[in-house]
Design goal:
Length: about 450
């Protein structure tokens, strides 16, 4: 039996044995490993009993909030009844029921649900589906992917190849070939890209969308299979689509017979006040990839959702999609997802986000009186706050300043002040916020108060 351990022993074990993800382990030579032991609603608690506001819903995951015993009970009930069975030529009721339910939420004829264990696998599955679909339908040379600068799409080597963050890819090159980047929709810095048009969001959006057509032309339409786009791009700090952007992207995809993949690993399940964010922005994808909020994180699960058209060739003769994951659509996870979606409906979480997102924005916008705050952008319960050296010129920080500001001060100071969120410099430096969807005005105020204090101190240190 495992003995209860004291904090000190566990700290030593963490430092000696645990390999944390995306973590500079040397930081923990001098700092303890923050160890979260419990969650309740919008709050988490560390091993010393200190309470924090979970300003990132774990990692854009815990939509329904922490401590939902009914989700834990759904998991326990399912594990007792049928702990595991694969979806390899067999099914179980949870996977069937969830596939039907997810298909009903998904826009248009996105009716076919392929389960994975997470988002990266969903992205990987979508690219493989796109390639095989075109092989089966007489366009075997269509295989390339277009995606956007600074966008993150996951860590499997295909998904990482689609990712637009050169620094994150470099250690693992050569990656899967055949992916190409186009500009993202960072309107705040549109004057610094090759965009030369008016400071008008619609015009900028058309320009950005047209870069996709240009990339398809450069590569050859006969070679391009898919475009992968997030509804709101996370990495870089929340770039919502300019008005008209997705309408134009859809037109381009139709013109060149290129599949539009909406990577909604973050944006689905209420983050933007809808089950799927494509609905919010009024476009029809050919594939949606999702994960995270589907179970509110009470068990791991992801999905790739495809249209009837894409499934059709796989329904015939001896064709099959030779692809799968042992734990994809795990019975415990599908049971938890069903219970989680029940909470969404019973508590009207999407409606709550739509009703209160304006208050969230207004509260965050109070911070624009701080000289370090350059831009506040996002939608729903999903915001990025870009930090600058000069509000007027939008001058950003150099690498050394980012290092001192984000890693040296902000991340630690925010956590110390009781706010768990993320200070990120994969693009320009931003603070990312995505609280659980049950958050209300009191939570927005607490976020604003802590940010105001910590950002004021950060400015004083510069
Ligand atoms: C847009 C997007 N796609 C894919 C992924 C990868 O998901 P996972 O970490 O579940 O593999 C993420 C993760 O944050 C993401 O934000």
């Amino acid at each position: 039996m495992t003995e209860p351990r004291n904090d000190e022993d566990r700290q030593r074990a963490a430092k000696d044995h645990l390999w944390m993800h995306f973590t500079r382990h040397s930081t923990h030579d001098t700092h303890e490993v923050p160890t979260i032991v419990r969650g309740d609603g919008v709050h988490i608690y560390d091993s010393h009993g200190k309470r924090y506001l979970d300003g990132l819903a774990g990692l854009f995951v815990v939509q329904a909030g922490h401590g939902r015993t009914e989700l834990a009970e759904a998991a326990a009930k399912q594990a007792a009844e049928l702990a595991f069975f694969p979806l390899w030529s067999y099914a179980h009721p949870g996977a069937i029921d969830l596939a039907e339910r997810v298909a009903a939420y998904a826009p248009g004829d996105l009716n076919r649900v392929f389960f994975t264990t997470g988002g990266g696998e969903a992205v990987e599955s979508a690219w493989k589906l796109a390639k095989q679909y075109f092989k089966l339908t007489g366009k075997p040379t269509k295989h390339k992917v277009i995606s956007r600068a600074i966008a993150y799409h996951g860590t499997p080597q295909g998904a990482l190849s689609i990712t637009g963050l050169p620094g994150m890819k470099a250690p693992f090159e050569p990656l899967v070939p055949s992916t190409f980047r186009v500009p993202n929709t960072n309107f705040y810095r549109s004057a610094e890209t090759s965009y030369l048009g008016p400071a008008d969001e619609y015009a900028f959006g058309q320009w950005a969308a047209n870069r996709i057509a240009e990339a398809i032309e450069f590569e050859g339409p006969d070679t391009v299979a898919a475009v992968f786009l997030e509804p709101v791009q996370n990495s870089g700090g929340c770039f919502p689509p300019p008005p008209g952007y997705f309408e134009r992207v859809r037109e381009i995809c139709d013109e060149y017979d290129v599949l539009l993949v909406s990577d909604e690993v973050i944006c689905a399940f209420g983050r933007l006040g809808h089950m799927f964010a494509a609905e919010r922005y009024g476009y029809q994808p050919d594939i949606i990839t999702c994960a995270k909020g589907l179970t509110s994180g009470y068990s791991p699960l992801g999905a790739m959702i495809a249209t009837d058209r894409l499934f059709e060739p796989f329904s015939k003769g001896d064709n099959s999609f030779a692809h799968g994951y042992t734990f994809g659509g795990h019975p415990v996870s599908t049971a938890v997802a069903m219970a989680n979606l029940d909470i969404f409906e019973r508590e009207q979480l999407n409606e709550h986000v739509r009703e209160t997102e304006g208050d969230f924005r207004t509260t965050l916008e109070k911070l624009t009186d701080l000289p370090i705050v350059g831009d506040i952008r996002g939608d729903g319960y999903f915001y990025g706050i870009e930090l600058v050296k000069d509000q007027k010129t939008k001058e950003t920080f150099d690498d050394a300043e980012c290092e001192r500001l984000l890693r040296g001060f902000l991340s630690g100071a925010l956590f110390e002040a009781g706010l768990y969120c993320r200070a990120d410099d994969r693009g320009d430096p931003v603070i990312q916020l995505a609280p659980p969807l049950i958050a209300d005005q009191a939570v927005f105020d607490e976020i604003e108060t802590i940010l105001r204090d910590v950002l004021t101190r950060a400015w004083a240190q510069l």
